[in-house]
Amino acid sequence: xxxxxxxxxxxxxxLQRTWADEVRRQVTRRGTVAGEAxxxxxxxxxxxxxxxxxxxxVLERSDDWDWDGxxxxxxxxxxxxxxxxxxxxxxxxARLTDEVAVTGEARQAISGTVEERIDVVGEGVWxxxxxxxxxxxxxxxxxxxDAERALAREADALVARRRAEAEAREAGRLDAAASADADxxxxxxxxxxxxxxxxAAVARLDLVGVQGRNLxxxxxxxxxxxxxxxYARSHGAGDVLCTDHDGVLEIQFEMPA
Length: 257
What we know:
Strand order of the largest sheet: 1-5-4-3-2
Number of domains: 1
Shape: rod-shaped
Low-confidence stretches: none
Distance between the termini: 135 Å
Helix content: 40-55%
Radius of gyration: 42 Å
Number of helices: 2
Largest sheet: 5 strands, antiparallel
């Protein structure tokens, strides 16, 4: 087999192709929305200072009540209860949360016309001895076909570049528009869901309130016990006995004659 010989054919085409496309951008926003309902109740006016002082001590030693420097707080199933020792108010809060997700979108039609001369070279191979049936004639045909394929590839690549350039020019504006659309949709969805959650929280407030009051009455009972025991002992009482049966607190002691 002789050394291969190569035939090169130069092909030129004046490309004129119109294209059209649509550019789309999407932006997703996610967030948590909460709805609350609350009620404030003053402590009974007949709770004396010794009991209030004992109540603060009971709450401070409890692992379930947290002190933030202003209020005592206890989490509830679907809310919380707080006690403000300064204003002597209980606040019961029913709180519901949910996740909200929206997608904003912006679209823009883009188009253009590519007018450009394309110049390529096609190549074919043949052998002096006709190896494989490759002759100068078949090599020229192969080179011509190779040039046609190269013209098609170059034309497609050129149009693709023009599309990409046009899309890039619109990208910043479309991203901003999609973000603005997502922000608007997020604000609307959040407001609507918050109204729904607030209505549900109002309906749940009674149930949460029962739970919170039961917890508070339990620590208040401890405070009454501690206040009474402290009073008895400060007056010389002996044999102090405290029992709790099914939520009924009994305190026994003997006062000196």
